[in-house]
Amino acid sequence: MKRLGALLSVIVLIFVAGILYYTNLDKNYYILDDLYGFPVPKNAELESEDENGKHYYWTAASGDEGIPLSYKLMIKKSGWIEAERMGETGTFVKGNNTIYLQSSTDYIGIMK
């Protein structure tokens, strides 16, 4: 009976930690109003921008592994759905808006 209680306590603790992590996820991102409200990591450094999008230096991005799980969760939390993935580029849709997110080593590009 003690083992069951300990197991339930661990499960509840993990569940509460997950909820707290998810609700505090917003603190690490800001929203780009000019790109339909797409989230951007606060620690990403803007390298360049043009009429189609913005390009960032971000050490958490990878060409092999893509973007971290926390960024994927924030994108989803912001209402974006990944419609397609072709190599390093993901297509995200929210309503009538489409964003292309390209990631490679130390780089993310967010484009209309």
Written overview of the protein:
The chain is α+β, with helices and mostly antiparallel strands and 112 residues long. 28% of the residues lie in helices and 39% in strands. It has helices spanning 2-23, 69-77; strands spanning 29-32, 38-41, 45-50, 53-57, 81-86, 89-94, 97-104, 107-111. A hairpin with a 2-residue loop joins strand 5 and strand 6. The radius of gyration is 17 Å and the shape is elongated.
Helix and strand topology:
Blueprint: H1 2-23, E1 29-32, E2 38-41, E3 45-50, E4 53-57, H2 69-77, E5 81-86, E6 89-94, E7 97-104, E8 107-111
Antiparallel strand pairs: 1-2, 3-4, 4-8, 5-6, 6-7, 7-8
Helical content band: 25-40%
Q: Report how far apart the termini are.
A: 57 Å
Order of helices and strands: HEEEEHEEEE
Largest sheet, order of strands side by side?
Answer: 3-4-8-7-6-5
Mean pLDDT: 89
SS-based class: alpha+beta
Number of strands: 8
- Biggest pleated sheet: 6 strands, antiparallel
Strand residue content: 35-45%
Radius of gyration: 17 Å
Query: Which regions have little confidence, pLDDT < 50, spanning 5+ residues?
Result: none
Q: How many helices in DSSP terms?
A: 2
Global morphology:
elongated
